[in-house]
Amino acid sequence: WLRSRFSDPKAVAVGEIGLDYYWDEPARDIQKEAFSRQMALAKEIGRPVIIHSRDAAKDTLDMMREEYGKDRPAVIHCFSYAKETARQFLDLGYMIGIGGVVTFKKSSLPDTLLTVPLERIVLETDSPYLTPAPNRGKRNESANVRDTFLKLVEIYRTPPEPLSQATSENALKVFGMVK
Questions:
Q1: How many CB atoms lie within 10 A of CB 127?
Q2: What is the model's pTM?
Q3: Does the pLDDT value for residue 9 go beyond 90?
Q4: In the prediction, which pLDDT does 179 show?
Q5: Taking the alpha carbons of 14, 19, 24, 30 in that order, is the dihedral positive or negative?
Q6: 178: Cβ contacts below 8 Å, ≥ 6 apart
Q7: How far is CA 26 from CA 22, 42, 56, 123, 170, in A?
Q8: Burial of 135 by CB count in 10 Å (0-12 exposed, 13-18 middle, 19+ buried)?
Q9: Could you say which of 46, 65, 144, 168 has the lowest number of CB atoms within 10 Å?
């Protein structure tokens, strides 16, 4: 069934796929099997992957290294790990997806992002979740990506235009929409 969905040209990626160890179910072996099959499908049909990884950095990295490979198009969705994990995903050639978490008061993500080049950042919303400040507690929507964007302008100490251009080009690149 999933393979048939990719006859639609609007289906530009396989995702959100990955591992979520925050919850006890489904069991980790079931998650790993599904993740493995989904990465294989993405490789077979030549689509990028959007990776969900929650409390599962080591297994996600290990499986992606072994089964998906280096320098293949991927976004690590709603990234919230530490600098070392960011470096490992970057070493594999993947993009780092940044959503509302970067705006949270107790987030360590702003410090981590200082080690991530702008050429590897993709903006995300994760709607309806992870609404950025100042709208936390409300349903997230695409318009709120502006708040995430403004936080990145602050973190990178850059004018808005180069950041906008970089993140837009990054998204187009990862989804194969530019040459």
A1: 16
A2: 0.95
A3: no
A4: 58
A5: positive
A6: 169, 172
A7: 11, 22, 14, 29, 33
A8: middle
A9: 46
